[in-house]
Write a structure and sequence with these properties.
single chain, 448 residues, 5-stranded antiparallel beta sheet, disordered N terminus
């Protein structure tokens, strides 16, 4: 990690001192590349770099932390090889070189995959060197091109009234600030304000209250929802009988492989399938910003599509990878017949009767108060996508993901594949979206 602390970036930041908030920042090409580079980081790598930097104070990113920690704690005998486990714990980005160029090797993987395709090789910067950008407090990023003062503010959602008394300051970002920005993009409502002005971090994705929809009742009352599609995964869900609370599921290698594959999906590719975003506001905004940029801004004709996750695994996008039985998928888990326990937070542990009794004891659940229900879930019908979305924002990813999956199946005919992201844009961006005919950001919107 030599040289990391020597890398600095200068930002011109406009603040409203009276309201104690950052309105926007003007950034040059070098720092814009850092922001775009977030989209290239696999989900497991994001957890890893946060853990390495923050240690015991690592922020929670949905259920990804516990999924990652479960992999770390599993014995190597459960994986196809030692290298497979290491790759899951240290997943390489398809675009690591920009971070190396900026001496931010902290983001890079030392693991070089030999039989797992994560995208196309890339060297250099994502953007043309002459590019500069305006970035809002919640990470809307737009080119700093010829337009009026009012239009520029409108593009980043800044009201003219907020500019009364505004002042410009110059701020230097080093590794710590870049790490805080990565952290803030997941957990803060106003990451630039929190980092630059030192305000109290406000969680952008507060933990959801318990769903009023009962997963238990959905499965009992909707037995007809059992999948008959290709790629069916069989789950045995365990509930506390008296409360109908989900405890854990018993699953085989296929489901565990599906969960582990989430760790190697780049952030931009994880965003792509969800028309209205993932619920991570800052990340959604950054992804949308890339979608609406003109291709001429990028240092290559395909870079925009790569950042947006159009092609990742064996020339398939995330939706195709997670839903098509025909797409070749990596096998992480040893092929010997084994079963696993997966609780709400996606921590994978080996199944055994004794370990299950110990788990129930830790949960303070009586064995006589346990009920098991079978669910036959179809990969083609969006199971993996539902779990992916829930894993990004919820520490109850199994419950939330399965509820979304069952609701999605029930309302399949009402779900369309051509809904745009227009509703989440600033007003002027909505017009720009239609005029520019930018590529759509995904194919499927999951139910909330």
């Amino acid at each position: 990690m030599s040289g990391d602390k020597d890398s600095t970036f200068s930002l011109k930041v406009v603040i409203n001192k009276q309201k104690n908030k950052v309105l926007f920042a003007e950034i040059e090409n070098d720092f814009a590349n850092v922001l775009l580079g977030f989209m290239t980081l696999p989900l497991g790598r994001i957890v890893q770099v946060l853990k390495n930097h923050y240690g015991e104070n690592t922020p929670l990113v949905g259920s990804l932390n516990s999924l990652y920690n479960g992999v770390a704690n599993l014995d190597c005998s459960h994986f196809k090889s030692f290298d497979v486990k290491q790759m899951l714990l240290d997943p390489p980005s398809a675009y690591s070189s920009p971070f190396r160029n900026m001496n931010l090797r902290f983001f890079d993987s030392d693991y070089v995959p030999t039989d797992f395709h994560l995208g196309k090789a890339f060297t250099g910067n994502f953007l043309e060197y002459s590019s500069s950008f305006i970035v809002s407090d919640d990470l809307w990023m737009v080119p700093n091109v010829n337009r009026s003062f009012v239009e520029s503010l409108d593009y980043v959602g800044v009201a003219l009234s907020d500019m009364d008394g505004a002042q410009t300051i110059t701020v230097t970002f080093g590794l710590n600030e870049v790490m805080n920005l990565l952290k803030g993009s997941f957990i803060s409502r106003h990451p630039l304000t929190d980092i630059i002005l030192g305000t109290k971090w406000m969680n952008s994705t507060p933990e959801k209250s318990e769903s009023k929809i009962s997963l238990h009742d959905l499965i009992v009352n909707e037995a007809s929802l059992d999948s008959k599609a290709k790629g069916t995964i069989n789950l045995k869900l365990t509930f506390e009988k008296s409360t109908k609370k989900f405890l854990f599921t018993q699953a085989d290698q296929d489901f565990v492989d599906l969960l582990f594959s989430l760790l190697v999906i780049p952030l931009g590719a994880a965003e792509r399938p969800f028309e209205f975003g993932t619920g991570l506001t800052n990340i959604d905004n950054l992804y949308n910003s890339i979608t609406y940029m003109k291709r001429q801004l990028f240092n290559g004709s395909d870079i925009q599509n790569w950042l947006l996750g159009y092609l990742i695994f064996h020339e398939a996008d995330t939706q195709t990878f997670l839903t098509s039985p025909e797409v070749e998928k990596p096998n992480f888990v040893d092929s010997r017949s084994r079963m696993y326990i997966v609780p709400d937070d996606l921590t994978v542990t080996p199944f055994s009767v004794c370990s299950t009794l110990s788990l129930l004891k830790r949960m303070k659940i009586s064995a006589s108060d346990v009920e098991e229900l079978d669910l036959h879930a179809g990969v083609e019908e969006g199971l993996g996508l539902c779990i992916l979305k829930a894993s990004l924002t919820s520490t109850r990813a199994m419950t939330d993901g399965l509820i979304n999956y069952l609701q999605l199946k029930r309302h399949t005919t009402a779900v369309t594949s051509n809904i745009s992201r227009v509703e989440k844009m600033p007003p002027i961006m909505r017009v720009y979206r239609h005029r520019a005919a930018a590529p759509t950001a995904g194919l499927l919107e999951l139910l909330d």
